[in-house]
């Protein structure tokens, strides 16, 4: 049977073009010849150009004929079929991308990232290697948005191009970026709602049930190339506060990413202490973070410098009091704090990781009338149950430091950290004080925390290797994809000793918890804590023990 093939598309196009060009050239040449006797320079130039283009077209026709000679009917038919079934290009991307494996290279906004491993994935996902950016759904909340190392969220990653801008949907709210990511803007926030029921204390005031809005935070962040910024406010404990409010300039130094930040910024101090409230494993940070705390608190106004390597980072910070501090007397200076933290990953593979860290700070405290400290032992719904010491003479200065050991093996993790803080009290007070017996005294408070956990559903523990702290886990079977979410079991022991300080005491706590991640950025937490405390001062003197059951619903966007 003879098969008749229609001329190929290039052949038809060439013949059509040849016919059109021939007719056009003939018309032009006839008109030009009729006027040639006029010796018009413009006509002469037109004839020259037409002849030159005619020769070029003839050369192109010869080359096209050679190509058609070597093109088989099967090749033409295959190409035609491929063109027929090729889907049109669309602006919306519905297939999520998971970056996993070793540490990915850091890219600035506007750079073209060169990812070592990039595959199209469908559910169920596979767990990422510990310490890889594929293991977490986003950068920690205290990081600069320009770092370029945030992973995507498979459960809800969508992007749409509108008027030359890219609208990305990830953690519940959209992010607007330019196609090259050189400019971006997004809203951010968290909602942490707690309920706690205390029991077992010999003081009735401790055996209460309460609800607390741990955090109701909203803010914005963005970047313009290497310049990024964050501004957010928080309403909790019945007051409105400014939280992160800083700008960061990112650069490269000797092949390493560096960051220079100015403004009100969260401190780096220990493993739990460097992590935001929305990413800790338990309802509250561990005893090391809550005990070895500078007078200025968790935030401070000042400057910070960070440098990052493949398996390490160093962070330094010089700050005064945070932006919410109000001086009761005019011209009272800030509490100046000098802080440093570093971490190093000496070993890692596809299933395991080992983290070593160290930190310290020195603070020069402004004159005050007295000093006291309440270290919460149960939860924020029961602040009265605490290790208390003071009031005593005001602090002159303090020096603190600690060590961190963290490890991952498959879906299990382990963290141990401890530290000390040596406190020197002032010789005098700005006002007459009843605590002069403690003038010039000094003492040391110590804290140790050991905690461990495991994801029963196979996720990689939520560790952000770039800065060595907790982050947001990438859930393998989120509820939005007809899964059962992620389930994590965890336990922690804390020990605190401040007995060498005037009026100081000691305490220990034990906590077990269950975390149910509906998806990467939404979870329900359940904690049970038992605490024993011995106070030498305050309203609740003597030995005491108590318990609390706490629940939290948490969404971070």
Automatic annotation (TrEMBL):
InterPro entries per the UniProt record, alphabetical: Porin_dom_sf (IPR023614), Porin_O/P (IPR010870)
Keywords: Coiled coil
tRNA-binding recorded as keyword: no
Coiled coil (residue ranges): 43-70
Residue span of region Disordered: 70-100
Pfam families found in the cross-reference section: Porin_O_P (PF07396)
UniProt feature, compositional bias: Polar residues: 73-83
Name of the molecule in the record: Phosphate-selective porin O and P
């Amino acid at each position: 049977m003879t098969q008749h093939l229609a001329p190929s598309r290039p052949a038809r196009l060439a013949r059509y073009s040849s016919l059109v060009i021939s007719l056009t050239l003939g018309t032009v040449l006839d008109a030009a010849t009729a006027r040639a006797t006029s010796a018009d320079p413009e006509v002469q130039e037109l004839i020259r150009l037409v002849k030159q283009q005619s020769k070029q077209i003839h050369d192109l026709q010869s080359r096209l004929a050679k190509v058609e000679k070597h093109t088989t009917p099967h090749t033409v038919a295959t190409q035609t079929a491929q063109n027929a079934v090729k889907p049109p290009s669309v602006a919306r991307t519905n297939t999520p991308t998971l970056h996993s494996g070793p540490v990915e290279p850091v890219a600035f906004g506007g750079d073209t990232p060169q990812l070592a491993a990039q595959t199209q994935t469908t559910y169920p996902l596979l767990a990422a290697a510990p310490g890889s950016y594929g293991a977490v759904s986003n950068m920690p909340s205290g990081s600069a948005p320009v770092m370029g190392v945030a992973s995507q969220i498979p459960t809800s990653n969508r992007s749409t191009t509108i008027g030359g801008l890219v609208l990305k949907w990830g953690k519940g709210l959209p992010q607007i970026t330019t196609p090259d990511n050189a400019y971006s803007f997004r809203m951010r926030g968290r909602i942490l709602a707690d309920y706690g029921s205390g029991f077992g204390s010999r003081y009735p005031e401790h055996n209460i049930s309460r609800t607390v809005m741990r955090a109701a935070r909203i803010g914005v962040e963005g970047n313009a190339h290497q310049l990024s910024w964050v501004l957010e406010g928080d309403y909790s404990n019945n007051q409105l506060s400014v939280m992160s409010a800083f700008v960061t300039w990112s650069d490269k130094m000797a092949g390493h990413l560096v960051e220079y930040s100015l403004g009100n910024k969260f401190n780096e101090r220990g493993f739990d202490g460097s992590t935001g409230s929305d990413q800790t494993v338990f309802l509250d940070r561990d005893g090391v973070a809550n005990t070895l705390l500078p007078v200025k608190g968790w935030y401070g106004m000042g400057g910070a410098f960070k440098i990052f390597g493949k398996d390490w980072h160093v962070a330094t910070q010089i700050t005064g009091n945070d932006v919410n501090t109000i001086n009761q007397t005019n011209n009272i200076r800030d509490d100046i704090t000098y802080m440093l933290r570093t971490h190093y990953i000496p070993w890692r593979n596809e299933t395991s990781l080992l983290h070593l860290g160290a930190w310290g700070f020195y603070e020069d405290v402004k004159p005050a009338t007295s000093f006291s400290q309440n270290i919460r032992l149960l939860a924020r719904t029961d602040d009265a149950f605490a290790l208390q010491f003071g009031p005593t003479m005001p602090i002159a200065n303090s020096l603190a430091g600690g060590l961190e050991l963290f490890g991952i093996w498959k879906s299990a993790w382990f963290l141990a950290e401890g530290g000390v803080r040596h406190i020197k009290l002032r010789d005098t007070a700005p006002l007459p004080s009843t605590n002069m017996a403690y003038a010039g005294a000094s003492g040391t408070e110590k804290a140790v925390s050991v905690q461990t956990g495991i994801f029963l559903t196979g996720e990689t523990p939520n560790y952000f290797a770039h800065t060595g702290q907790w982050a947001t886990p990438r859930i393998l079977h989120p509820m939005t994809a007809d899964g059962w979410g992620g389930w994590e079991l965890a336990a922690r022991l804390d020990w605190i000793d401040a007995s060498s300080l005037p009026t100081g005491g000691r305490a220990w706590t034990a906590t077990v918890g269950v975390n149910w991640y509906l998806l990467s950025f939404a979870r329900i937490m359940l904690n049970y804590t038992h605490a024993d405390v011995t106070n030498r001062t305050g309203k609740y003197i003597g030995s005491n023990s108590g318990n609390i059951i706490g629940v939290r619903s948490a969404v971070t966007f």
